[in-house]
Amino acid sequence: MKAWQVKEFGGLDAMSYTDVPKPEPAPGEVRVRVRASGMNFAETRMRSGTYSGQEIPFLLGMEMAGVVDALGADVTGLAVGDEVFGRARGAHAQFVCVEATHLFKKPRALSFEQAAAIPVGWLTAWHALRTVAAGKPGDRVLIEAVASSVGSAALQIAKHQGCWVAGTASRDDKLARAAEYGLDAAYNYKRENIAERMLADTDGHGADIGLMTIGEETATMLFDAMAMCGRIVMYGSTGGRQVCFSLNIGTRNIELHSMSISTSPRFMPETMRTFADEALPLFESGVLRPVLDVVLPIEELKRAHEMIDERTHFGKIVLTVDQ
Ligand SMILES: NC(=O)c1ccc[n+]([C@@H]2O[C@H](COP(=O)([O-])OP(=O)(O)OC[C@H]3O[C@@H](n4cnc5c(N)ncnc54)[C@H](OP(=O)(O)O)[C@@H]3O)[C@@H](O)[C@H]2O)c1
Q1: How many angstroms is it from 202 CA to the middle of ligand 1?
Q2: Closest CA to 35 of 91, 99, 109
């Protein structure tokens, strides 16, 4: 089969679409014939060698939608021919093997491209807002990088939770697109002080929940934007990891949570379960909508990496796979 592989860390040319053996499902796994695969910021770091724990060689890709093609031993609840989607390492390929418990049945209302736009971004946002921050109606939520794949999912989730939502971006055109999904207040953090805007827009209250994903570049503004007893959930550091902050956040009783959906002990039992029970029906009914920026053939993965670096996308870049 064909798959995108990295043998040595590096730039775009470190990736090659090459012939590799078709994988066989281990016990508990299924093999999926991939129809579409989502693109994530983390993959650019995996390719360049700055993603912690990434070893070489490896196959690129972190999520997909497709059709179950073979079952390993001890798999229950799935059959050959089922249309599924989920997180899967090595998913920029014609086939991928993945633990059956990591998959969801694809809502009938969604195309493979739409379903492939969900797993990493939406599960990260769901884990942050539903599991970690326990958002509730009326919360004031501040989402950093609201145009990102995770951020645009968080926007829809927070609005569905009944929250008032502010979001940040480095470009006004991305903020304008977020307004189409119900963003209540839009802050361009390159030329505005997020904290001043947030406090002004909430009558001095601040953010009950702050989703931190940029890190070093904007952390001070995010801390200053938080309300009494506000909860910060940190899941990314696109703008640098060395954050310096004053412990006077204690006088406002601010809670600082960090998270990874790959390692959180709450992810499988809580986030996967509540996402299946509560979010999937909302995708089926059209209340929640996967956000696709552009769909490219999988052969154009290098262009997708360039687009992530250009930072102009809104939502998810999706790759389609010909079989
Ligand atoms: N903890 C977890 O379990 C988990 C899971 C999935 C993703 N994540 C993290 O969530 C974040 C978003 O991922 P994603 O796939 O949604 O990203 P994405 O769609 O590629 O969007 C990333 C956005 O981050 C903003 N950004 C700010 N500073 C940046 C910089 N120096 N370089 C590049 N981008 C910068 C950019 O938006 P603006 O220019 O508008 O600011 C950019 O478009 C990443 O940090 C990722 O690692 C964490």
Answers
A1: 26
A2: 91
Which of the listed residues 209, 237, 258 is the one where a domain comes to its end?
258
Q: What is the CATH number of the domain that holds 151?
A: 3.40.50.720
Q: For atom 18 of ligand 1, which residue has the closest CA?
A: 148
Cβ contacts of residue 301 below 8 Å, gap of 6+? Answer: 4, 15, 17, 39, 60, 92, 319
Amino acid at 5: Q
**Which atom of ligand 1 is closest in space to residue 312's alpha carbon?**
43
CATH of the domain at 301: 3.90.180.10
Please work out whether the CB of residue 170 comes within 6 Å of at least one atom of ligand 1.
yes
Asked if residue 147 has its Cβ within 6 Å of ligand 1, the reply is: yes
The pairing of strands 63-71 and 83-87 is antiparallel
Indicate whether 109 and 9 sit together in one domain.
Answer: yes
Domain assignment of residue 9, yes or no: yes
**Considering only CA atoms, which of 316, 228, 280, 230 is closest in space to residue 109?**
280
3-state DSSP assignment of residue 67: strand
Is residue 150 lining ligand 1, measured as CB closer than 6 Å? yes
68 plus 111 within the same structural domain:
yes
Instruction: Say how many domains are in the chain.
Output: 2
- The answer to whether residue 273 is domain-embedded is no
Same structural domain, 128 and 113: no
Is residue 176 within 6 Å of ligand 1 at its C-beta? no
Q: Is the CB of 145 under 6 A from ligand 1?
A: yes
Q: Domain range holding 194?
A: 121-258
Whether residues 163 and 190 share a domain: the answer is yes
Per-residue pLDDT of the chain (323 residues; tens, 9 = 90+): 999 999 999 999 999 999 999 999 999 999 999 999 999 999 999 999 999 899 999 999 999 999 999 999 999 999 999 999 999 999 999 999 999 999 999 999 999 999 999 999 999 999 999 999 999 999 999 999 999 999 999 999 999 999 999 999 999 999 999 999 999 999 999 999 999 999 999 999 999 999 999 999 999 999 999 999 999 999 999 999 999 999 999 999 999 999 999 999 999 999 999 999 999 999 999 999 999 999 999 999 999 999 999 999 999 999 999 86
